[in-house]
Amino acid sequence: xxxxxxxxxxxxxxxxxxxxxxxxxxxxxxxxxxxxxxxxxxxxxxxxxxxxxxxxxxxxxxxxxxxxxxxxxxxxxxxxxxxxxxxxxxxxxxxxxxxxxxxxxxxxxxxxxxxxxxxxxxxxxxxxxxxxxxxxxxxxxxxxxxxxxxxxxxxxxxxxxxxxxxxxxxxxxxxxxxxxxxxxxxxxxxxxxxxxxxxxxxxxxxxxxxxxxxxxxxxxxxxxxxxxxxxxxxxxxxxxxxxxxxxxxxxxxxxxxxxxxxxxxxxxxxxxxxxxxxxxxxxxxxxxxxxxxxxxxxxxxxxxxxxxxxxxxxxxxxxxxxxxxxxxxxxxxxxxxxxxxxxxxxxxxxxxxxxxxxxxxxxxxxxxxxxxxxxxxxxxxxxxxxxxxxxxxxxxxxxxxxxxxxxxxxxxxxxxxxxxxxxxxxxxxxxxxxxxxxxxxxxxxxxxxxxxxxxxxxxxxxxxxxxxxxxxxxxxxxxxxxxxxxxxxxxxxxxxxxxxxxxxxxxxxxxxxxxxxxxxxxxxxxxxxxxxxxxxxxxxxxxxxxxxxxxxxxxxxxxxxxxxxxxxxxxxxxxxxxxxxxxxxxxxxxxxxxxxxxxxxxxxxxxxxxxxxxxxxxxxxxxxxxxxxxxxxxxxxxxxxxxxxxxxxxxxxxxxxxxxxxxxxxxxxxxxxxxxxxxxxxxxxxxxxxxxxxxxxxxxxxxxxxxxxxxxxxxxxxxxxxxxxxxxxxxxxxxxxxxxxxxxxxxxxxxxxxxxxxxxxxxxxxx
Length: 767
Description:
Distance between the termini: 115 Å
Protein name: Tetratricopeptide (TPR) repeat protein
Number of strands: 0
Structural class: mainly alpha
Number of helices: 38
Radius of gyration: 39 Å
Helix content: over 70%
Shape: elongated
């Protein structure tokens, strides 16, 4: 055997090992490379009489090497050698090289794509794409495999975009995938694999550019995939999820209600499967065996997303069945995946929403518990951390409004601040988080009279509103809440600019809120209050008339919805009473009394608003010359421990003044004494000096009034005691004679400041 024959036999064994067994190593190991080089030297030295088997072997070796690891040089050599023998010995060459029009090249390109490693030389991918492109030019339009070649080419373009990031490759991928689908010839692989390639290419382009036309195409393709999937096809469930998410995205961007409805219908169809009862369908869905170990999480997420979509449709349409179905879907989702934060958060939100409409405290308690549980697996920096804190803060704030527990309010503020810090500026939930924190700060300012809380609330409201363009769905919400924060600050410091800005923002919010928004009544309630307060400053009758109309609209829209109904009823009573004072219209006074009683009757036990509504009813009764009844109502307000101290002090003062006016001195003394005893709760050590001074300026004469009544009611010694008590309370607060907590101490030693806060709060509690 000659050397050339030995080399040919050795290299052919390596070629066969690759073709039969996929052994790539044998083509590239040093001995193979040495044999290849030696055989090339033989060809050069025998250029005039090279045996055909030598040319064939060299060509096949370079061809298989290129298939195993695409190197353009190997392909060029193989092409040249096969060309030398193609006409004489066509049976010795592969199909890709038999036809000079390259109709077989797409198959070779596809094999390269299939074997391409993630870290392969980019030139290999370029070569595969080039073979597909050039080969397709030679494939007849009616070739049954043309669609497959186009689909493979589309996949190659996407692979190259993922590696190199050239946007033009995505355009080419979409064009190739569309052309592949249009051939209608799927070579036995099924149309869905072609739609999958197109869906993937368009989705990658949409993720890059966020063009509406691409989202439309994604919806069309995913809808076709879902509708054509057989009922038992495991992929049908995934297609439904993809379609629903795309529809929800388009609804979020374009606001078309039909997209939201279709997204819900698609998810429901996958769950109900012809079952009429939704709860039964959920139970059956939960009981179904899952194909893979991680599929139960996918199914739980599918239910959770359905619950979220139903919740959103409830917020824009107010259909009670949507809220009930959302809770049912979220609950089953949590049962399927108890530790999944998004599911726990979704159920917490829907339960809180049901509390706000139905008033069952158990829903609110469960909402707080679930929101806390959602945070156990999350840490700062986690994508869901800020959203979870927002939900917890919201539920705590609403629980405070229901129970009056100030600890809930403090935690709501602290949690809300942390949530805002952990949400990126471009996060859509950031707006709602800011509004929640603003509301919590306002509530705490009402409880404690802290001016810094109001200033912070105004700053947060302005920052949240600034980036929102006209027409943004959250803009009315931001306008309304900023208006209320400005109103509260005007009430504290009487800056006319604040109340004028509040009116402008409040009107804009009421005029632009979605007519289908189930919380629309809150916008009119807020506007009514703002207009009433400005009337008290300007005495412009138009403001008062507009306030009455806005309050009536709020009551009409609220229906039985708590707690907004409470606010609307109370505000309507206030505005009617205010208009009676201006016009002496008895009908207004009668209505004011009726609406105040409705507000009180609707207050659940412990609701902090009850004290304010009782104080209001007392004023109306006093105007009706029912002073004894007014005093009884004010006494009830003073004894409402959950009420804001400011309202309770106002009720106690009104009680004392009314009784003194009728020379009922023991009762007057008791009213004024109660007011003095409540001052430390309002002007306590938890608020800053400026806020204390504003509050104490209103109450400086309470001790003297109490003492004067005691002079008429009893022995002089008791009057002196009351006078001294009033002076001690007021001066003790004003001069901070007990070790004061200054701003400097809070900055330099926050831990010590917190400890002193706790001790002082304990000392301030009555024995």
